[in-house]
Design goal:
By secondary structure, the chain is an all-beta fold. It has strands at about 1-10, 10, 20-25, 30-40, 45-50, 55-60, 65-70, 75-80, 90-100, 105-110, 115-120. It contains no helices and 11 strands.
Length: about 120
């Protein structure tokens, strides 16, 4: 009922920047928050950043000061600006949305993932 379409990502050199975006569409009654996870090869999925619809953001320690998450509530879109990228940031990045599709039904939806590769 809710679809997420991610864009951005790609290959960048260490120290460079990339921007990701993720737009939610479908049967949306209310969005409580959106965010980003990542999964590196051989590692478990980990939270990168999250933001509530009220604008309160939270970051994993390993991206604080380098990544910025933001959300456009009018567009149901979440963004992730990634600066000072490191090789260890290489991963597939997944966006998610904490969404209500009706006044009584709430859940999560996930994007398909986008590859971010940091390499010289």
């Amino acid at each position: 009922q809710v679809q997420l379409v991610e864009s951005g990502g790609g290959l960048v050199q260490p120290g460079g920047s990339l921007s990701l975006s993720c737009a939610a569409s479908g049967t949306i009654y209310s969005i409580y928050g959106m965010g980003w996870y990542r999964r590196a090869p051989g590692k478990q999925r980990e939270l990168v950043a999250a933001i509530t619809s009220g604008g309160s953001a939270d970051y994993a320690d390993f991206v604080k000061g380098r990544f910025t998450v933001s959300m456009d509530t009018a567009k149901n879109t979440v963004y992730l600006q990634m600066n000072s990228l490191k090789t260890e940031d290489t991963a597939v990045y997944y966006c998610y949305v904490d969404v209500a599709v009706s006044s009584w039904r709430r859940g999560e939806a996930w994007g398909q993932g986008t590859q971010v590769t940091v390499s010289s």
